[in-house]
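FYI - complex with pyridoxal-5'-phosphate, inputs then prediction.
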Amino acid sequence: MSEWPVALQEIIEDFQDCFDRMERYELLFEYAKRMPHPLPNEEWTDENRVKGCQSEAHVECIIDADTGFHIRGGADAQLVQGLMAVLAIGVDGLSPSEVAQLTPKFVDEMDVKASLTPSRANGFLNLFEIIRSEAEKYTNQPQ
Amino acid sequence: MSEWPVALQEIIEDFQDCFDRMERYELLFEYAKRMPHPLPNEEWTDENRVKGCQSEAHVECIIDADTGFHIRGGADAQLVQGLMAVLAIGVDGLSPSEVAQLTPKFVDEMDVKASLTPSRANGFLNLFEIIRSEAEKYTNQPQ
Amino acid sequence: MEARIEDKALLPSTMALNLNTIRADFPILSRRLEGERKLVYLDNAATTQKPQVVIDAMNDYYANTNANVHRAVHTLAGEATEGYEASRTGIAAYFGAPRDNLIFTSGTTEAINLVAYGWARANLGKGDVVLTTEMEHHADIVPWQILSKECGIEIRYVPLDRETMTLDMEAFEIAVEDASLVCVVHTSNVLGVRNDVERIIQLAKSRGKGGEGAHVMLDAAQAAPHERIDFPELGCDFLALSAHKMGGPTGIGALFTTTDTMETMKPFISGGDMIETVTLEGSTYQKGPHKFEAGTPRIAEAFGWHAAVQWLDQHNMEDVHAHISSLARWTAKQMRDIPGIRIYGRHDLETTSGVVSFLHEMIHAEDLAHLMDAGGFAVRTGHHCAQPLMEALGVSSTARASFWIYNTMEEAEAFVNHLRGVVERFS
Amino acid sequence: MEARIEDKALLPSTMALNLNTIRADFPILSRRLEGERKLVYLDNAATTQKPQVVIDAMNDYYANTNANVHRAVHTLAGEATEGYEASRTGIAAYFGAPRDNLIFTSGTTEAINLVAYGWARANLGKGDVVLTTEMEHHADIVPWQILSKECGIEIRYVPLDRETMTLDMEAFEIAVEDASLVCVVHTSNVLGVRNDVERIIQLAKSRGKGGEGAHVMLDAAQAAPHERIDFPELGCDFLALSAHKMGGPTGIGALFTTTDTMETMKPFISGGDMIETVTLEGSTYQKGPHKFEAGTPRIAEAFGWHAAVQWLDQHNMEDVHAHISSLARWTAKQMRDIPGIRIYGRHDLETTSGVVSFLHEMIHAEDLAHLMDAGGFAVRTGHHCAQPLMEALGVSSTARASFWIYNTMEEAEAFVNHLRGVVERFS
Ligand SMILES: Cc1ncc(COP(=O)(O)O)c(C=O)c1O
Ligand SMILES: Cc1ncc(COP(=O)(O)O)c(C=O)c1O
């Protein structure tokens, strides 16, 4: 099951080292600052909005022939932005087909899921699904 | 507490001799046939209707200077008519002031109350109250 | 004459249900009445009893989870929201429907009012005909009468065929052509008759509104406890239900409607939770069922109803129906032999539900109900909120015994015997 | 800096309540969250927890009594009807009102909709002004917006005085003169502010509608759990409430209205039980509250709510209010010392309810609620169904801690300490 992309695997381990929910939240706040490709507020639109989040969250995917898959995103709540950053760092530079094959199960391994309320979890799943299906569009692998 | 008018006291004892609810119902059916002054269907009007009964029940009071207080009444359900007859026989010929002082407690002593549903009990209490207040109007005793 | 045991051959499928375990699930069935009399509950068409799992689900909600749902972050609110929305999913699935076809209401009555206020007021007007029937419950008559005064729709009633005690389908076929909306009771709460709803829907869709197709609303209050209803398969536009008639709690029910139709509905009850944004100038509404669910929802009730459909789902509803229907048909058959008893309904049809309406030619219906109650038998009497049907039957009320899943052949026999005794003693 | 114990001198009247026995009555309060953390439930303005007696009353109803009410003859139906109507009497009496002033609804939201559909649609039209406020819950805004589109009434809003965080009463005094109906929230669910409802009613009655006197509707959803409301004494025309905010179950609430006003109301939700007679040509309606209570009522819920008012009635509501209010005021005072925290509301007034709305200048409200939840503290975040008020406050949401009768000083201290820790660690 630990067949996660390397960067994601590292993040998972980072979270597994946390002692409790407060520490995991602290780490998420940390990650929120490390969003590799932030999406500035001015670019937040209805189209790139993630539905099902209570707070505002926006995301876009870029696929670059040379550097691979990238997520641009931003959120007003830090915990949301933290989750977004985990994903963005975890998949940064992968091929679209690698991203398309990802499952959201890594969140379980991070032990963060229990700390997410259902509405937050839904928001996260929506986010994940946006990214996965976006990646799928660009993937050459049919099926 | 057994300060009931003689006729009513006899009826109460009649009911107390019953073995169970079915027997009490049988007795009420009997009494239904003994309504001293029946009110024929043709005389059933909105004015003399007893509210709060599910079935139709109608009642009128007559006060005769010589023969005293009398109840004329009729109902389509026999149990209602039976209760009406108990009351009508029990107070027949009393003075209005005697009737006005009556309480509906005699029904408890008859053991019939437990056999009355609340809506039926309400119907009976309405009936009783119509008769009592009618009697009160004709009573010389003030207060 | 005692109930004839050989007639129990009518009851082949009862075997499929384990009535002992079923009865053990319902705490109230072990209640003793005055004089240690056993309760024989035969008022199921008014409301059914609740299995312990339903009571427990609500208990557990209040004792461990209770919080207001939606827009919530804390643990309890998260659990409550999850459970509430899982209830929507589970209940909808029981009716074969996607979760966003289910609008929670306080019952069938509010569900039909939602069709009237939410859909009909927005989509019908002068010249439109709402076609309903003489067999309806008041819940499917009065809202249309009120609406007709307000916006000029015309109401027409398909008559009861007094011979066959079923809807006059020839009259329906003609009347449907003018109808914009057809509102029919799926299964009658008085006669136990199941209308041919498949045909009604098919006719309404193919010939309704001059061939354009009419909308169809089914009042399934009495059908849901009897058969497995698949909302999408039926193909009607609206389906109204109450939880309390199918083992669930009071205070909750549903209107099922299709996504397309839902989009043409105006908000009805409004307030919090159904809006997207509110400004002093105006508001925008949520999409889907939430648009019609204003305010704090019936949270505990949703948990309870969910437990009820899960409980029902343990059983094959065809077996359940066969059991209930054959109890009712056996009982009706026996009752016909009691002098002076007259039965209303079609108890020769296998589709008939658990309802037996009856009268005695001499004993007033209300007296009958009292005399049955004295034996522990809970039967209802009155117009059953169907005065136009009473009118059609030429009576002002009936007594009604109605069976459900937990009733037994022994109860049916005891009922018939007690009734026979009552008739002998009191007529 | 730790919470200053000496400030507890603010809490003189807490002594009057035995919090240990009170807490023992609420099963959920002994629940442990993830990691054996104690639950500190501070989301009482959204919904309160339920004492065991309320849960038991509904249990007992379902396990021993359950039957449909009214028009009923058998034992269970009689007991259910008696209990249901005793609930109406008991709940009405708790609010000082005769039983036939109480119309059961599914909550405050439906109660206000009943005023809009049942009274306003029948009595107001073009040229009439409905005066409400910027402080309202959406339940007291959206129904008026919908009505205004339909029948041309005009809505005006009394502004919030942003300085004092109370209603701008000068603006009210002027605006009331044109108003036919005044709809005001008794106690704000966001600010905890109690409006001067006595004066509002007095002004509306003396100066409203050009001196003729306006009708007044109070949204008492947040007031009922806080103070003893005497409906006749208040002298308003409508009072809307929810059971679930005062220890009762979900799915039930009430509209109180006077006999005279009730007579001027049209039926709203229609169907069985609210009619006198139904014929194919038309129907006549019942008198009194039944006219507005169509269909199978919320029977178990009425039993539960009745138990809740009986439970509350054991306590002196002035002590209860003093306890809750001083907890909230103490907490707000401590919180003002936490760097970056901003409080919304007037916590210098003794009339303030148990609500403390707050924000941190750096930490998003939703993050704050998660971080508090991690400590076991259930607080809510969002617009609290009061977007116009948020707009007036210049924010899009707040975090909100709200106290009720069972909350303790220790919980308030723990809350302040955890919040201080969160702010230190996360900002
Ligand atoms: C002030 C106020 N009004 C109305 C409501 C709506 O109450 P309910 O959701 O119970 O209908 C609430 C509760 O959210 C409230 O706080
Ligand atoms: C056929 C039918 N329709 C509608 C209703 C109304 O249901 P409820 O009272 O639960 O709203 C009933 C129940 O009385 C019914 O039997």
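Helices of chain B lie at 6-16, 21-32, 78-91, 96-100, 106-109, 118-137. Chain B has one domain: 6-139.
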